[in-house]
Amino acid sequence: MTNTLYDALIAPHAENDQIFLALDNGTCWTYRQFVQRAAQLAHVLRKAGVNAGDRLVVQGPKTAEAIALYGAALQTGAIYLPLNTAYTQSEVRYFVDDATPTLVVCDPGHLDAMTDICPCQILTLADDDTGSLSIAANDQPATFDAVDRGPDDLAALLYTSGTTGRSKGAMMSHRNLLSNAVSLTDLWQITDQDRLIHALPIFHTHGLFVALNTSLLAGAKVRFMAGFDTDKIVDELPQSTLMMGVPTFYTRLLGYPRLTHALAAKMRLFISGSAPLLAETHTAFEQRTGHRILERYGMTETNMITSNPFDGERIAGTVGFALPDVEVAITVDGEPAGPGQVGMIEVRGDNVFQGYWNMPEKTAKELRDTGFFITGDLGVQTEDGRISIVGRQKDLIISGGYNIYPKEIEDVINDIAGVLESAVFGLPDPDFGETVVAAIVLTDQSLSNDAIANMVEPQLARFKHPRRYIVMDALPRNTMGKVQKNILRTEYGT
Questions:
Q1: Residue 262 has pLDDT above 60, yes or no
Q2: Cα–Cα distance between 417 and 247 in angstroms, integer?
Q3: pLDDT category, 161, cuts 50, 70, 90?
Q4: pLDDT tens digit string along 181-218?
Q5: Using a CB cutoff of 8 Å and minimum separation of 24, what contacts does 148-151 make?
Q6: What would the mean pLDDT of 405-427 be, rounded to a whole number?
């Protein structure tokens, strides 16, 4: 029997006694223990009626047991559906109704609420392994015959954030996930000698598939943290070689006096993604640690698309080059754009998802017959292939007939001394269609809006000037650090 992902990521570790997961409480799981626990959990799933192609919804704590559950889902052929732990009962109801799972696994504290909305069987997963799922697994066999699953069979269903409408379930195949893991492991030179600091959530592509699939493929050790804790990460840097994070991780670390060249001397790579990294963060982090952060670009529907080089220049404000097995095209009205011309980013490759769950019309609209996926992101490409993201198409501002790309304005504002960061967005305007508004976070509270406007004006054409500046304590972000401009538009649209 062949099971594409299980055979590549998990089965090879059946007799591997090297450490896989080092936990917050000081205990460790070896790879052998992980494989055995995944098998025990697979037996529980089978007894609960979970078969190949069934959906398994998981909304629970970040634990080693949760990672073993992912492995168990692969063995049984189930389609793994992790949910953000911050989702409300109403939001979870939508996902359950849409995905029609055979089994839901949740935190014991949410059991009553989940029972109200789930017609299927429910098991619990606690952060101390006392949930009903774990208890049921304890007396199960430590081996399980993985079911037959090929490259095109679905392995996971990941729902997008739904900021522009109802959330869409991106169908990810075994081939989609494995191709990306292979490419990234090779590109970033991840080996069994690496020790990864893992402080990301595991309900998202970044923390689950980018970080853990590459670690499994390489046989790397993972310092598995329940969440981001600056003290713990700083303590782990001298023993580690690799870290994957979102920009917020790096800005918080920069605020920590203990972060130095010496502390990060053993580290070989810091990776950032899920949201744009400011150029000043690049510079400040390099000055403090001697390391230039490697920024990459991906999305739920495609896994990773591009990466700055491991060996080569990592340029702030760019997301590097297309991965070796990925094609990227910049288009304007479906036609190829020239070097330096802003256009739609389209992507084709084994990493691109199979379509949206229960949404054939949406799938047909965003997946071309040629196999290219229309990302919704706007970007530019240099002659040598390096890509920079300009912004989302939905964030494009059209004022007085002119196209205005928010990132161009944000880059100017962010360069002003006393400005920490900014988010530029459009609001309805009766004369121009839309007007430009900038939300800003200051480090110098004496900096006035007029002073900022005076510094912006000489650097941008007049139609690009923000007509309003809004000072905020912090920009609204989702759990992966992305600025939620839809919230800004809704809050200030009146």
A1: yes
A2: 20
A3: low
A4: 999 999 999 999 999 999 999 998 999 999 999 999 99
A5: 148/1, 148/2, 148/3, 148/52, 148/77, 149/2, 149/3, 149/4, 149/5, 149/6, 149/52, 149/74, 149/77, 149/174, 150/2, 150/4, 150/174, 151/4, 151/175, 151/178
A6: 91
Contacts of 473 (CB under 8 A, 6+ apart): 441
DSSP state of 376: E
Long-range contacts for 406-413 (Cβ within 8 Å, ≥24 apart)?
A: 406/485, 407/276, 408/460, 408/464, 409/436, 409/438, 409/456, 409/460, 409/464, 409/466, 410/438, 411/279, 411/317, 412/456, 412/459, 412/460, 413/438, 413/440, 413/452, 413/456, 413/466
Q: What is the per-residue pLDDT across 336-386, written as a single tens digit (0 to 9) for each?
A: 999 999 999 999 999 999 999 999 999 999 999 999 999 989 999 999 999
Please give the span between the terminal C-alpha atoms of the chain, in angstroms, as a whole number: 60
Torsional class of 79: left (φ above 0), alpha (ψ -120 to 50), beta (otherwise): beta
Q: How many Cβ atoms are within 10 Å of 416's Cβ, its own excluded? A: 17
Query: CA torsion angle for 310, 315, 319, 325 (degrees, to 10)?
Result: -40
Residue 165, pLDDT above cutoff 60: no
**For 373-445, where are the E strands, in sequence order?**
373-381, 387-392, 397-399, 402-404, 419-429, 433-442
Say if residue 164's pLDDT is above 80: no
pTM for the full model?
A: 0.85
List all residues 6 or more positions away from 198 whose beta carbon is below 8 Å from its beta carbon. Answer: 207, 211, 212, 215, 222, 223, 224, 225, 244
Question: What is the rounded distance in angstroms from the CA atom of residue 234 to the CA atom of residue 426?
Answer: 39
Least confident range from 32-36, 165-169, 425-429: namely 165-169
**Tokens of residue 343, six digits:** 């256009």
State the Cα–Cα distance between residues 107 and 61, nearest whole angstrom.
7
- Which of 78, 77, 80 lies closest to 3 in space, CA to CA? 77
Please name which of 192, 258, 249 lies closest in space to residue 225, comparing C-alpha atoms: 249
